[in-house]
Amino acid sequence: MAQGETQPRAGCMEAVTGAERFYRDSTERFQYLELRFNKIVRLAATLIYILQTILYTGIVVYAPSLALNQVTGFDLWGSVAATGIVCTFYCTLGGLKAVVWTDAFQMIVMVAGFLTVLIRGTSLNGGPTKVWEDAHEGSRLNIFDFDADPLRRHTIWTIVIGGTFTWLGIYGVNQSTIQRCISCKSEKHAKLALYLNLLGLWTVLACAVFCGLVMYSHYKSCDPWTADFISAPDQLMPYFVMDIFSSMPGVPGLFVACAFSGTLSTVAASINALATVTFEDLVKKGFPNLSEKMSTWISKGLCVLYGVLCTSMAAAASLMGGVVQASLSIHGMCGGPMLGLFTLGIVFPCANWKGALGGLLAGITLAFWAGTGSFIYPAPPTKSIPLQLSTLNCTLANGTASLTTAAPTAAPERPLLADTWYSLSYLYFSAIGCLGCAIIGLLISYITGPTKGEDIPPVLIKPVCNLLFFWSERLKTLLWCGVRHDSLEIDFEKKLPKVTANKAFKNSINKETHCQISGYNPEEKSYTNMSRESRL
């Protein structure tokens, strides 16, 4: 519950702040990196994002296929292929509009499925009070575990610190999120959409947590995974659904629809974002004079290509262990360094392109070193599964023989780092990548010559020092590092890099709007997406 309530909120706040940076006449966030640094940094970030999204989407496609296999016996890989085909089909034909509207419908289906399982499971296990008592007796409500050991998978520190960095990367700099924001009518609407998203996320996380408590109450004396009734922990929920709804044919289908709704939503958004980034950063750069018709066909072709790649990546996802841990690990390993890169650009005026590129590579190296090692050499059970799982009342299929515990086998040899660096909680991968990128980036920037604040347009920098030192104008000005945040008139055409062929940055700046770009609405104090308005 702590992770579900604290980290998404922090990520949403970062996304709201980021909306002010990205909300220009733009279709994707990497244009900011070219304006702030150069094309090389933008290209490096694009390639990392493509890698991250393909890996993550493979996991998302694989997860509900496990559920369908458990509930219906349908072939696992046939389900994977069907999921990929459906997502690719409606994303290719409908574009972002199809993604947004299907997301809204799928959210309703997901919550309905959760509530059905919650109500039925709670009633079969003696009501909410009994479920809560069982969870308390089994130490499942020990939320405030202040163990400082970074090797423990879930403690208050891993959730608050590591989880915050992870969700900042997901909400603050992820193209799928930013793309939804800039599709809104104005910056004000984008912020409102993010706050509503936060409420929806809290709802889904709360349902998932309480479903877990109900499952523990139901299986506290016979854990199906430990008893080998299921082959993976990710099959526990569908196994539970089949168990409690065995006398109600057809109802398990609602759960399958619930699981697939989340997948269709995420996969379609990811494919659309991948196609957008690739077209804007790679295709358009190489072929700037493409006609609108040809651009449309290329975008649709990219959707098909990425649909095939993401579906194929599900095979690798089957080797990564639990889907929740694997997906957040991927977000941490790739999203953490990306968060560090944008932090360098938005917060630190002194950072130059060499520091940004070097920091990004250093952050990716550190995060992938820790993450890949954790996949190869998983943490010992004492760190990853510290709570007891009972099989006391389990019986074999014939119902006569009690389940026996297999004799322990000799543990395989593990390298020195396996029980230290490789056993770090997966929630810390994002923090490692982000901090590594920011620290190394600043060091390289100072060694190679920091960027002068006077040369950076204020619109590209967020003066966070204004919030921390609001009481001292002199101190705030000092910490601006030369950036002219107090200027009433700035010639952006001269100050921005040559890439500012973008029309949004060419417009003259009105003194009365205090250096705001075209599309600024002084009454709402927000920007209007001019490209969207022209399309409407």
From TrEMBL:
One of its GO terms (cellular component) is extracellular exosome. GO terms for biological process: sodium ion transport. It is a multi-pass membrane protein. The chain crosses the membrane at residues 40-64, 76-93, 100-119, 154-173, 194-216, 254-277, 297-320, 326-348, 355-377, 426-447. Keywords: Cell membrane, Ion transport, Membrane, Sodium, Sodium transport, Transmembrane, Transmembrane helix, Transport. It is found in: Cell membrane. It holds the Pfam family SSF. InterPro entries: Na/Glc_symporter_sf (IPR038377), Na/solute_symporter (IPR001734), Sodium:Solute_Symporter_SSF (IPR051163). Its main location: membrane. One of its GO terms (molecular function) is symporter activity. Belongs to the sodium:solute symporter (SSF) (TC 2.A.21) family. This is Sodium-coupled monocarboxylate transporter 2. It comes from Lepidothrix coronata.
